[in-house]
Each structure stands twice: as structure tokens, then as C-alpha cells.
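Revision sheet: C-alpha cells.
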Amino acid sequence: AAAGPALVQLASGSGQRAAARRRAAALLRRRAGALSSRSLESAAARVEQNPFTKVVQMIEDLLAKLKDEASAEAEHKTWCDEQLKINKLKREKKSTNVKEFSAELEELGIAVQDAGKEINVLIKEQADLNEYMTEATQHRETEKAANLDTIADAQAGAVAVKRALVLLKEFYTAQSSSFLQQSTAQVPELAAYKGMQGENKGVIGMLEVIESDFVRLAARTRAAEEQATELYEKSMAAGKADAELKHKREVELQLSKDGDEFAMSQKRKDLAENQRALNGANTYYEQLKPTCLEVHVSFGERAARRKEEIAALKEAYAMLEQKADA
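Predicted:
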């Protein structure tokens, strides 16, 4: 008789648990539809099909799984955000460096090219100037030799004419004394002598003109030589100063060009290094895309949906727990 009420109570408890399973399954199915959640849909089916105690354990396991997934996804999101931030900064920095090094290389290349052109011009100008100075020196030496010969010849001619004048004057003086010692009766010869004296004066005058011409020629040539020497020395001084300036400029440009070429070699290395780093950063960015960027549902949406799933499971679990204690 005592067994009867106990069986009734047991049957009543089993019925209540079955009803709790159905209500929990219905709750999970509604939430599954609202959230488009396969996990809740699967849980609802398993709640209906499995024994009560197994259903409770299943929900506990599913709750733990969802919490683990949420934690893992949060960690992955943090990792993705950190990696994307670092990668973005690296790509921006390396891209800026590549642009700057490329621009600097272009500027240095132009500077080297311009310096090379100017150096070639300076080398040619120095060669032309050296050729001009060599030719001017040769011309000056030839001109000087000719002037010295002219001066020497003129001086020798003047001396020779002067000697001839002395001898001629002595001769005429002697002739004049000889004629004066003759008797006054020799009038015709005296008259003839006077005629010769006039002629002799003409010869002496001509020789004196020739002598003065030689003296003037020597003086003019000497003056011309002095003037030519002065002009030559000024020209050589100006040419030497110009050559020194051009050589100094050439040395300065060559040093600058060498420095720029060395800088270019370093810039090329820096450019290549930064380009490799940029390529690596771009490659890594492409690797991050599938797991960190190219997702159908955002992390926020997934986290919110998982939170709703966990809330639904907890609510269902609470329903079952109440009947488990009954």
C-alpha cells in the first residue's frame, strides 16, 4: 500500500522533468531562431532527445565550451589588433623611408650628374687655357728674340754709322786744312773745294739721319718689347689665376661628387633594406587578412551573439536545475 503513493510521486517527478526539458528545448529553439544559432538549435534537439541528467551535463559542457571559445576569440582579437597596429606602423614607416630614400637618391643622382658635367667643362677650359698660355709663351719668346735681334742690329748699325761719320768728318777736316795751305793763286781749286764741301755736308747729313733712324728703331723696338713683356706678364698672371680658380673649383666639385656618390651607395643599401622590410610587412599583412580582417561577422557581433547564446543556455540550465532539485 505504501508503494503506491511512492510510484505516483516518482511518476509525477518524471513528468515534471520531461516538461522542464520541453520548456528548455523550446526556449533554446526560440533563441536559436532569433540568433540564427546552430549551437542553440543543436542543443535544443539534444535536450529533447536525451535523459534529464545527461541534458544537464550537456548544457554545462556547452556553456564551458562557449566560454572557452569566447575567451580564445577575445585573445585572438587582442592579438590581431596588436599585430595589425604594429604591422600598420611598420608599413607606414617603411613606405615613408622608401619614398624619402628614393627622393634623396634622385637628388644625389642629379647632383652627381651636374658635378660631372661641370668638372668636364672645367677640365676642357683648363686644357684650352694651358694651350693658350703655351702658345702665347712661344709667341712671346719668338717676338722677344726678333726684338732683341732688331735692337742689336739697330745698335750695331748706329755704332757703325757713327764710326763712319767720325772717320768721314776727320777726312773732310784733313782735306779742308790741306786746301787752306795752298796758295791763293789756285783759285779754281779753292772754288772746287767749296763745291765738294757742300756735297760732303750732304753725305754727313744723310749718315746722321741714318744714325738717328737706327737709334729711333732701337728705342721703338725696346719700348715695344717692354710693352709686350708687360702685356705678356699680365696675361700670364691672369691666366695662372684663372687656372688656379678652375683647378680649385674642379677639386671642390670632385670631392663633393665623391661624397655624393658614397652617400648614394649608402642610400641604395638603406633603400634596399627598407624595401625588403616593406615587402615583408605587406606579405605579413596579407597573411593577417584571412583571420583578422576578412571575416563574415565582426568580432563585436560574434561576441554579442555568443553572450546571448550563453544567456539562453544559462536560462535553460536554470529551468532544469529547479526540476533536478524537486
